[in-house]
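= Tokenised fold =
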Amino acid sequence: MLTLNLGASALQHPSFTRPDFSFHLNCFPEVSTVKFSLQNHHVLTKTSFLVANAKRSQDMSDPSLDIEIDEEEEEEEDDDDDDNGEYEARSGFRGREDEKNYDKDPEFAEILGSCLDDPQKARSKMEDRLRKKRNKILHTKTGSGTPMKVTFNKFDFSNSYIWFEFYNAPLEKDISLICDTIRSWHIIGRLGGCNSMNMQLSQSPLEKRPSYDAVQGANVNPTTFYNIGDLEVQDNLARIWVDIGTTEPLILDVLINALTQISSDYVGIKQLGFGGSEFENWKENLTTEDAGYSVHRI
């Protein structure tokens, strides 16, 4: 066997033994083999391999070529992969995983992709989508088709009750919706959002470009919402005490509009009453939960 040592020089640095790549040509009975040992201190991967060199006159087209890779190299590659995995875990890099993935809804992704190139096509696709999935998008109204009745009985903006009469005893979710609505109404009123003295945009002509006078808005008399009580419920009746403070009918219109929509879409309200110390079958001495009385904080 003839052994050639490549890379040997006068100044040869120590090297490490690396995995062997062995190429065995089994198609020839007698061959001369040459073993090359490559050693390079600049390269981390050091390879020694055995090459079987056959005569050029022989046919090299036989497919029976076996390539054997030592297990040491496979272990080294596995170690490198583990190191890369640990690096990704430490760095926290996850590529594009955090971005919204529209593959979950390819139909919607197709609509978005075509909205700029062909808006009419995107519109027709969206209409088809709504027709197919309208049961999941549009919910059936659970309120009442009969308009809510609104009454006033000596209503005092500084000290009065607002009364509710439902068609049926409200469920917990219905009470939660009513409480959220009243709470939002109180916040808007307390911040002065319902001020009929400063309605510049609603009173401006529609054909003109909207404009707002900040000085005029800052100089109007402010409105507020002083205080509000908790929502009390007895069977299908409810009431809440309010101290609006300033006489501002707009704040009542805002509440009536909101409750009208709630009565139509969610929970039917038979009557909404402003003022008065008594209402229908409300019992002042009924204050226990066993009797159907409950208090809900606003």
Remarks:
- Helices lie at 71-91, 106-114, 119-132, 134-137, 172-190, 200-203, 214-219, 249-265.
- The two ends are 97 Å apart (CA to CA).
